[in-house]
């Protein structure tokens, strides 16, 4: 199994169109059998205080242009099939210019993960 968090940056003024494309991409990726989890997130400027008085917010303050993907694939081959597959390549062709690029590819930060403990409740898979 291969899991990671990857971040992209939407160009200024392109958020609305980029988010439409990302929603379409997520729907298409749902058809890829080797993709176990594909979550597309944007920063939430939420701030709240627990009943016990402790305060919480995102720190450092994230950029509203940021897109955070949380992905999991059966194996490295499934990831490669995703990246080179029709859904992702069509997305890049149609929406790629809405994101920061470097050397002809999306500029991303990526961190591969190795699960040590935890769980995922079935309710977590409810669609947005």
Structural notes for this entry:
This protein is α+β, with helices and mostly antiparallel strands and 128 residues long. It has a single domain (2-45, 58-115), classed as 2-Layer Sandwich (Alpha-Beta Plaits). It has 3 helices and 8 strands. It has helices at residues 15-29, 76-84, 86-95, and strands spanning 2-9, 35-41, 47-49, 55-57, 66-73, 101-102, 105-106, 109-113. It has a 4-stranded antiparallel beta sheet with strand order 2-5-1-8, covered by helices on one side. The two termini are 25 Å apart. The mean pLDDT is 94.
Please summarize what this structure is.
The protein is α+β, with helices and mostly antiparallel strands and 128 residues long.
Note poorly predicted spans: none
Largest sheet: 4 strands, antiparallel
CATH domain class: Alpha Beta
Average pLDDT, all residues: 94
Count of separate DSSP helical elements: 3
Counting structural domains, the number is: 1
The quaternary structure here is single chain
User: H/E element string?
Assistant: EHEEEEHHEEE
Shape: globular
Tell me the distance between the termini. 25 Å
Classify the fold: give the CATH topology: Alpha-Beta Plaits
Q: What amount of the residues lies in strands?
A: 25-35%
The percent of residues in helical segments reads: 25-40%
Q: Please count the beta strands (DSSP E, at least 2 residues each).
A: 8
């Amino acid at each position: 199994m291969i899991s990671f968090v990857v971040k992209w940056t939407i160009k200024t003024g392109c958020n609305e169109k980029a988010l439409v494309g990302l929603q379409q991409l997520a729907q298409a990726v749902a058809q890829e059998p080797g993709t176990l989890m594909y979550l597309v997130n944007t920063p939430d400027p939420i701030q709240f205080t627990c009943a016990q008085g402790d305060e919480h917010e995102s720190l450092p303050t994230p950029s509203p242009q940021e897109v955070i993907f949380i992905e999991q694939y059966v194996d490295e081959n499934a990831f490669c099939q995703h990246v080179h597959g029709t859904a992702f390549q069509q997305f890049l062709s149609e929406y790629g210019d809405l994101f920061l690029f470097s050397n002809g590819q999306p500029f991303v930060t990526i961190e591969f993960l190795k699960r040590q403990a935890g769980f995922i409740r079935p309710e977590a898979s409810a669609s947005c």
